[in-house]
Amino acid sequence: MSGLAETLCYICEEPIGDDPLPGIVLFFIDPYGWTMESERTEHVFCTECQLLTDDGATEAMLALENAPPQLFTHKVLLDLLIALSLAGKLVVDFSFPALYGYLVDAMYRWRYKIRLTEVMDALAIMTSRDFADFLLQRLAQHALAVNVRQLLQYRGAVPDAALGEDLETASLAGWTTRVLTPPAVEDFFMQLDERLNRGSYRYNSTIRVDND
Length: 212
Prior knowledge:
Layout lengths: L20 H9 L1 H4 L12 H4 L3 H12 L8 H13 L11 H12 L6 H11 L2 H27 L7 H13 L6 H24 L7
Helix pairs in contact: 1-4, 4-5, 4-6, 5-7, 6-8, 7-8, 8-10
């Protein structure tokens, strides 16, 4: 996939093999090095060595969030979560450190490529059910925040924002504070996508086009 199979980890000097994460991290750091089109200037680490430090763990999750579509799979995310747990990095922390912020971002970006129930069940087993529910709630809130920002981009061309839309946002925000389930959040994603499509049509259709 990335030409790294025979590459040795910079720390343990073991071959990278077919582990996809080192290629994803390398692509995030140095896309040209990943394609072997230029000399690789970054050290390559196997997953175990990548996760030795908190910074390395956070970098791995950020790289996964920003991975090219051809490199991301549901299994890669689950494997990273398991590796983080084995490395002692997947711990209950309601202060919501960067690692979990990037995890939520990754789950939202790849929401239609992951099986959310499986991911949340795995998180509940490796952390706690309460913490998994907390992350699911943060995921729903993140999805709504992204949706609002996108709608505001459309709304910028309209002098007066629609009050009804703001009231709908308030109602949706209240929904995200409840006890949620993965299927409910997946339905929420689709509801937000439909809302965005309506907003795109509504606001773009009101923009006057001068053909003179």
